[in-house]
TrEMBL record:
Keywords: Carboxypeptidase, Hydrolase, Protease. GO terms for molecular function: serine-type carboxypeptidase activity. Signal peptide: none annotated. This is Carboxypeptidase. Its EC number is 3.4.16.-. One of its GO terms (biological process) is proteolysis. InterPro entries: AB_hydrolase_fold (IPR029058), Peptidase_S10 (IPR001563), Ser_caboxypep_ser_AS (IPR018202). The keyword Aminoacyl-tRNA synthetase does not apply. SUPFAM superfamilies: alpha/beta-Hydrolases (SSF53474). Belongs to the peptidase S10 family. Pfam families: Peptidase_S10 (PF00450).
Length: 537
């Protein structure tokens, strides 16, 4: 029932307008081979994945481990997938934990569609991802809380809240380190995106307040982080208007009918007026989110040719999930999924879902308790926190590296709201290095960055909500610079980004110093001419 007004028949539904479900899967760049790691981390061989079904190649060129770890406190079994570093000695490489959002969405999304080493094509064949963050780091992908993905059991609603999730994740880490003692005292980072903007501050806060032996926490990084419901939610309308998704008339109508506090309430199905609901519905009609991906407003949506063009599951779970879906009969998929290019598009998550439902895959990764109909997001009744800002004073004073980054084509948890809660509308952090551009390894400007006291904020130009999926080269470079430092990553070699190669003939080079382009020289020449003409006149 939209905002308590059953008479409103427009497709707006408050639960569908949530910022929190973020399962959008996006495009990958051209596939390139990945070098193999040479040394194995000492590990529990019972969870070693010895054969990955449908892998294209003789064998996976690095060690990886997967299975369910039982928590002593309650017997819950949390599923994880550990991938060892492929390009360096994994026995000395740092360890990073990755958490997707939701709440209740699987971190295997990150493994198979973003920063992980695997990509599944339309034939359910598994290829290597050259932009995997596991090149120089060991990455563990955790399905949390219990009930998500292969983690079991599904819990009662009262057990789903952020304090409980953080506590159980700490418990998982203790068991993980006991199973993999080679990681004791190793540099450890916590990373994630979306609702991990809540998960991670709660988790880091617990680890800071009550340190765990052998866990050497060094920092955390969160992409497009849902952090404060009011601030993040209030930035949506500004983004819609600024990116031509709605008219100026609708923008003003919503602003007039829905004060900021009421706008947030309406988007969460709380107290709001009929006028506010009506104004929002008009704006949503204009934005037409049946055909625009709100998590990547300049990207394509998935059109299927085998189900009368129904939208994919990930969009049915997005914040437009209960908006009406227009008929797309005879529509065809816009993705390209050849075995050589692996330039998969917005339908890619469907392939991943089908792959993880295969019994052979579940057997290979040691899933117990019978077959599981794996899905990207669990249908759980989760008690969401309105804000994680209260955790930041403690964690920012813990001598940790902190990175917050935003793909700038995400309208849902957008950079406007993130900047606001970092600055005047939230933490009010002090700027120590002003706003400026940053450059990727292809010498192209990749976005903008500001250094605050104890925190770095970065935007990623042209990236959606799932930054590693839409801008894999820039995301990889950003992650490695965060972990290893700017000087170190400046000397790393990176895969050639063929989509940008024409503008960057030496895109495999490590230098990030921008060169003066011909267009810049032309502009400069015209500027000089104008000055000379002005003087002569």
């Amino acid at each position: 029932m939209p905002c308590g007004h059953s008479s409103l028949t427009r497709t707006y539904d408050a639960s569908s307008w949530s910022l929190l479900n973020t399962t959008r899967m996006l495009s990958w760049s051209t596939w390139l081979p990945v070098a193999a790691g040479a040394v194995a981390v000492l590990a529990d061989s019972s969870h070693k994945v010895t054969s990955l079904p449908n892998f294209v190649g003789s064998s996976v060129p690095f060690n990886h481990y997967a299975g369910q770890i039982e928590l002593p406190s309650n017997g819950h079994k949390l599923f994880y997938w550990l991938v060892e570093a492929s390009d360096v000695d994994p026995s000395t490489a740092p360890l990073a934990l990755w958490l997707n959002g939701g709440p209740g969405c699987s971190s295997l999304t990150g493994l198979f569609t973003e920063l992980g080493p695997f990509i599944v094509d339309s034939d359910l064949k598994v290829h290597l991802n050259p932009y995997s963050w596991s090149r120089k780091a060991n990455i563990v992908f955790l399905e949390s809380p219990s009930g998500v993905g292969f983690s079991r059991p599904i819990l009662d609603a009262s057990e789903y809240n952020d304090e409980e999730t953080a506590a159980r994740t700490v418990e998982f880490l203790k068991q993980f380190y006991a199973m993999y003692p080679a990681y004791n005292k190793r540099d450890f980072y916590i990373t994630g995106e979306s609702y991990a903007g809540i998960y991670i501050p709660f988790l880091v806060y617990n680890l800071v307040k009550t340190p765990v032996a052998n866990i050497n926490l060094k920092g955390f990084a969160i992409g497009n982080p849902y952090t404060d419901a009011s601030v993040d939610g209030g930035a949506q309308l500004d983004y819609f208007y600024a990116h031509d998704l709605i008219s100026i008339e609708s923008y003003h109508n919503v602003m007039d009918a829905c004060p900021p506090s009421m706008y947030y309430s309406c988007t969460r199905g709380l107290n709001c007026t009929a006028d506010c609901v009506a104004a929002i519905n008009v704006a949503l009609n204009e934005a037409d989110f049946d055909f625009v991906d709100p998590y990547n407003v300049y990207g394509d949506v998935c059109l299927l040719n085998n189900t009368e063009g129904e939208r994919l599951t990930h969009l049915s779970r997005s914040f437009t999930s209960k908006l009406s879906t227009k008929s797309l009969k005879k529509a065809t998929s816009t993705s390209s999924t050849t075995a050589t290019a692996i330039e998969v598009g917005p339908c890619h998550d469907n392939y991943m879902t089908a792959y993880l439902k295969l019994q052979s895959v579940q057997d290979a990764v040691h899933v117990t308790g019978g077959h599981i109909e794996w899905d990207q997001c669990a249908d759980i009744n989760y008690s969401r926190s309105r804000s994680a800002l209260q955790k930041y004073p403690t964690i920012l004073n813990a001598s940790l590296k902190a990175l917050i980054y935003s793909g700038d084509t995400d309208s849902v948890v957008n950079f406007l709201g993130t900047q606001r809660w970092i600055s005047r509308e939230g933490l009010n952090l002090t700027v120590v290095d002003a706003w400026k551009g940053w450059f990727g390894p292809d010498k192209q400007q990749a976005g903008y960055t500001t250094e605050y006291q104890n925190l770095t904020f970065m935007t990623v130009k042209g990236a959606g909500h799932m930054v590693p999926a839409t801008k894999p080269l820039q995301a990889l470079y950003m992650f490695e610079c965060f972990v290893f430092g700017q000087k170190a990553c400046a000397n790393f070699k990176y895969p050639v980004n063929t989509s940008q190669a024409s503008g960057s003939p030496d895109s495999s080079s490590s230098s990030t110093t921008p060169k003066t382009s011909k267009s810049q020289l032309v502009v400069a020449s015209w500027a000089l001419l104008v000055v000379l003409l002005s003087v002569s006149l």
